[in-house]
Structure formats: C-alpha cells, structure tokens
Amino acid sequence: MSSIAGSSRIAFRKPSALPGFLPTFAFTIFYLSTVVLIPLAALVIRPWSLGFDGFIAAVTTPRVLAALELSFGAAATAAIINTVFGFIVAWVLVRYRFPFKRLIDALVDLPFALPTAVAGIALATLYSQKGWIGGALAPWDIKIAYTPLGVIVALTFIGLPFVVRTLQPVLADMGPQAEEAAATLGATRLQTFVRVVLPALTPALLTGAAMAFARAVGEYGSVIFIAGNLPMVSEIAPLLIVIKLEQFDYAGAAAVGLTMLAASFLILLALNALQGYLSTRR
Amino acid sequence: MLQPRNAIEDPRFFRIVAVIIAALFIALNLLLPLLVVFSEALSSGLHAALVALKEPDARSAIRLTLIVAAITVPANVIFGLAASWAITKFDFWGKSFLVTLIDIPFSVSPVISGLIYVLMFGMQGWLGPWLRDHDIKIIFALPGIVLATIFVTFPFVARELIPLMSDQSRDEEEAAVSLGASGFSTFWRVTLPNIKWGLLYGVLLCNARAMGEFGAVSVVSGHIRGLTDTMPLHVEVLYNDYQYVGAFAVASLLALLALITLLVKSFLEWRYADEIAATHRH
User: Which end of chain B has fewer surrounding CB within 10 Å, N or C?
Assistant: First the structure.
C-alpha cells in the first residue's frame, strides 16, 4: 500500500517521511473493530431475528413504551433544568469574582468523576423520607425518591457539567466588544443581554443541552437506586434491557437497545440541524 | 459616563442573586450527595467503616477492580498512542470518519455497552455455543468485565492525544528520522516528552471511569459475590442488603478516588494548561 502511494494519483494516503503508519493504523483498525464495531453490529443485527413485525411488537408493548417515555421525558426535563442552571453557573464562573469560586469550578466536574453507583445510593439516601432533603420536604407531602421525580433529580445531577463545560470557553472567548458596541449605541443591559449575548451563546447552549440529554437517556447507575423501578411508573429503558437479559430475551433486549440508540441519534441529528440553522441565520 | 457603563456590567443586585443561585444549585445538587457518602459511611464510627472494608467480599471486590483497571488502562493507552500516531502523523483517506468512530462509546448507554458483549459471547450469543464447547468463559467472568470496561473507557486517551498531537507539527519527528533515529526512538525521545502531560491527563480520566464503571459491568458480571463483583457492584449488593455502613464505606473509597482524580486534574489543567488538549481545545 505504502510503496505505490507515491506514484498512484488516487493514493489512500499521502507519502510521509515518518515510519510506522502501517502497524499503528492496522492495530487501530483491528482494536476498534474487535472492541467497538463488531459488537455494535451484533446490536444492530440481533433484533431482526424476531422478524420485522416481531421487532415492532417487542418495542411497542405498554411497558416498553412507558419506559422509553420516562427515559426520554426525564432526560429532556433534566437537560432543560441543566441548561438554565448551567448557564447561570457558567456565567458567574466566567464573569464574576466571588469567594470559593475555584472550589465551585472544580466541583462542577464531580459527576464526571464520581462513579454512578455512588451517586445513585447517595441521591437515594438524600431524597428518601429520612434523608436530609427528603425529610425536609416530607411535611409538605412532596415525595421525590422512588417516583419519576427521582429520575429527574438523578439525571440533573449527571448532566450539569456538560452544559457548564461547553458554555465556559465560549463565554470566556466572547470578549466585551460586542456588548460595548451595543451599549454605546444606547442599548440597556437587558437589551444587550437578550439581543447580543444570548444569540451568541445559543449554539453552545444547544450543544451542551444535547450532550447532557444524550448522556441522560442511557444513564443507569445513578438512576436505579432512587427511581423505585416500578413498571409503567418509574422504570427506565436501560433497566428494562437488564431485566430482559436476565430473562434470556436477548433479541428483546437488543430491540429496546437499538430503539434507544436510534431515537437518541435522531434527536441529536435534529438538534444539530437546528444549531446549523441558527448559526447561518445569525 | 455612568449610563454606558451600566449597559456592559450587570447590576450589583443581579450579580449577588446569580452567584447565590449558582452556589445553592451546586451545593444542593453536587456537594450534598458527596457529603452524604462520607457521613453515612461514618454513621457508626470510623471503626465500623474500616471493618466493613476488611470483609472478604469487600477485599475481593477491591482486588477485582484493581485488576480490571490494570488491564484496561494499559490496553487503552497502547490503542490511544497507536491511533493518535497513525491519525496525526499521516494524511490518509477517511481520517475524520475514523476519529468519529473512536468517539462512539461515549454516546452509547452503559447498559448497551454491556449488552453488546452478551450478544456476542453470552449463552445465546453469536459465539456462545462455540465458547461453551471449548470451555471458555467470557460473560459472567473476568474477560467480559474487562471487555465492557475497555469499551466504556475506549476514547479517553485517544481523544486527549489526537487534538494535542495534531496541534504539534511533525517537524521535530521528521528531523529525528532524517538524522537516522529509528521510529521507536523518535517516538520515545521526541514525541513522548511533548505529550506526557496530556497522556497522564487521559490516563487519569480513563482510570477513574474504569474503576467506577457500573452499568456496563453490571450486565456482564453476573454478580457472583466474592468472584465477579467489582467495587461499584459490591456497593449495590450491600445497599440492597440494607448494609448501609458497608455500602457507603466502599462507596467512600470510590468517592475518594473521584476527589483525588479531580484534584490531580485541576492541578494538571492549572500547571500544564498549554500541554493538555482539553484546556485549549475549545
């Protein structure tokens, strides 16, 4: 391959003075295929052993639909909560000076570093009737743990860093020029914020929200402890995959898994298109 | 001159409220769950927590987690080095597609990451009957746990090194090779010193995830106590057994790992910001 690369016009790769392309490239492809691509192919192929009708039937039972609805609905709700609060957190971290700023900045990454099972039992304890937060809410008869609300709490926990870490560098790079221009032209602070700052940040906000959403849809460890896992009520789609596997229903598990992947892929594609539309319009 | 100044600076009242909202959100959403882990672990005193960590099952879970990380991290480091060498030192067709493929595991649910290996190697998987005939155990055994962990931590090293190495020119390596250095010594003496902090950063994140992974491992491990339970899985077992002190004692070890990871990560970002891709990628 490399010996003819110099002479052939439609060469696979450009000639280079450096050695080691073939072994490193071959190893990369081998490892990628063995660990990622071939096993993922199993996920794409396996559900069709049920036949097309069987596949549709497997993913449209009331229990599966309820689980998908909860997973996607709670993930979207958590993404929206995180977009609002993540924006405020990123804004104060970039724009203001205040005590414990470094600590708060470092804490934002906690959900990336803390194992999900640890987060799961901590949140379940915190929000249960006897927990610090659950106990405080009990007199108002608000229940969070073991309800769909608990799922949203867990997904909010894991999604925050995606929004903050996407927004921070964009905010830091933005510079005051555009805002100063708006101000000299007579805009109020509110007008400047709504007309200048927010449109410039919308693509980054969408990216952060999409990443938080994608992560939340498939999240398992931090959710199952606080969710209560009641079928049709607080049972998330990844848990249903685990249950189907325990019943040796491989094809059914793969069908739910493939549906989840396809649905989140389509939603991300739509968000990407929206982002492209917004950035060309600007 | 007071008027234009107000239009680029947020009002003082607004700043204070925003900081308070951000701090409260971080405290409630991130800090409290972290504190609960340690407070529950120590609820019966330090001695009880230490005794729980010395249980045979807890010790075997800790040992298994260390073994899994000791295989997973080097495997992904070798892959990350090979992939980033092939991708950044050469120009070839389909390169950006290859980079996209490497990122896939980040957008796959942990449960699905485990599921795909069950579909491959499980009893009713593609290779299941053949493996059973040859008495090879992958699922519900160490190889399956390692494979699932490799999958979820697959991109960490590569995605840190690829942007870092594409920012660096190939001149130094080309000079070394033209002066007669072998490919390996070029890599060892020229490339590696340029990427060492980035590599350490990738290893740090890869290791944290490898030791803390729950969903993917939970699907392939089979939960055999004392045999195939990693630390996060052992946390689940103890928690579901109502052994809260033990569950939170093991969990606080994992939380300590997360805190150390965050500390080293912040230090690397602060001290070696120029030599880490993550801090100047955006």
Answer: N
